[in-house]
Amino acid sequence: MKEKVIVTAAVTGSLHTPTFTPYLPITPKEIADEAVRSYEAGAAVVHIHVRDPETGRPISDIDLYEEVITDIKNRCDVVVGITTGGAPGMTVEQRVSGVMAFEPELGSFNAGSMNFGLFPAMNKFKEFKYEWEKEYLAFTEDFIFANTFKSLKEISAIFNQRGTKAEFEVYDAGMINNVAFMINNGYVKSPVYIQFVMGVLGGITATPDNLMFLVNYAKSLIKDFEFSVCVAGRMQFPICTQSILLGGSTRVGLEDNIYIEKGVLAKSNGEQVAKIVRIAKELGVESATPQEARDILGLKGIDKVKY
In 3D, which of 147, 246, 200, 141 has the Cα closest to residue 10? Predict the structure, then answer.
């Protein structure tokens, strides 16, 4: 284990729809408030998506991004990471628009293509709060989340030009090989930052053995890297705890899991952050401050962003 763990809060994401939980932040103010609440609970990083303020649908809107991240920056020094995963159906241009416009310190960078299935969630509800939700979930039964080698090369150039650190989202083992390819061909520089994303239908399942395999495989191919783990669903806290034990960092938040414990909805991202911070402390590990996270990951600093 390391002395410090970087805790990231994925505040709203694009996986869950408003029917899943009444606590999902939707408006710019709600998203910014949740980000600050997460920071106050011990998160060093917040991972940001935006939604249509009227319907809660995930969208790519520069004005909404600016409103959210400017509000966050005015209230605290947390590291802001902007998604380039976006939502199912978005173009690559839409997905990278936030990084291009605002040059954040950190941005998610999806490391390969995959089936990305949200459609089983349709069976959990008889009625949806908004008309778009059922169609949005159903669409993913025939959806390939495309991240080709050509787009990986192009997106890496965008990140390099803007000084934004890539947070490589690795959903399955082959994506580790993709990251190694990017390093070996000079598209990105070591040390890299990897987020192992587990439990998404189409990607690797969230088990202790699988996390051990991913970490060991990354060590064999990449060697010089920092890693974090996020988990979709009920295995969030067990596997995130395992990540801490293995010397990694962790991501929690309502993007990945809407519960704080079995059958109990989390009322905020801050609740989940406070829980993983408490678990880490019981293991003798302190949560990193935003500045400590910047030092660990080699980020450019909040004074060099464009918002």
Answer: 200
Residue 17: CB atoms within 10 A of its CB come to 24
Helices 92-102 and 149-162 pack at an angle, to 10 degrees, of 10
Nearest to 170 by CA among 251, 234, 97, 247: 251
Domain boundaries, the chain: 4-304
Q: How far apart are CA 249 and CA 196, in angstroms?
A: 10
- CA angle (252, 7, 213) in 5-degree steps: 75
The helix or strand, by DSSP H or E, that contains position 144, with its residue range, turns out to be: strand 144-145
Complete DSSP assignment for 29-57: HHHHHHHHHHHHHT-SEEEE-EE-TTT--
The CATH superfamily of 4-304 is: Aldolase class I (3.20.20.70)
Is 130 within 8 Å of 214 (Cβ atoms)?
Answer: no
Q: Can you state the percent helix, strand and coil of the chain, rounding each to 5?
A: 45, 20, 35
How does pLDDT run across 136-190, given as a tens digit for each residue? Answer: 999 999 999 999 999 999 999 999 999 999 999 999 999 999 999 999 999 999 9
In this prediction the pTM is 0.96
Cβ atoms < 10 Å from Cβ of 190: 9
DSSP at 22:
T
Strand partners, 48: 82
Element (H, E) at 160: helix 149-162
Name the burial class of residue 96, with classes exposed (0-12), middle (13-18) and buried (19+) by CB atoms within 10 angstroms of its CB.
Answer: buried
Q: Which residues does residue 253 pair with via DSSP β-bridges, in sequence order?
A: none
What are the tens digits of pLDDT across the range 248-290? 999 999 999 999 999 999 999 999 999 999 999 999 999 999 9
Evaluate whether 249 touches 292 at the Cβ level (below 8 Å): no
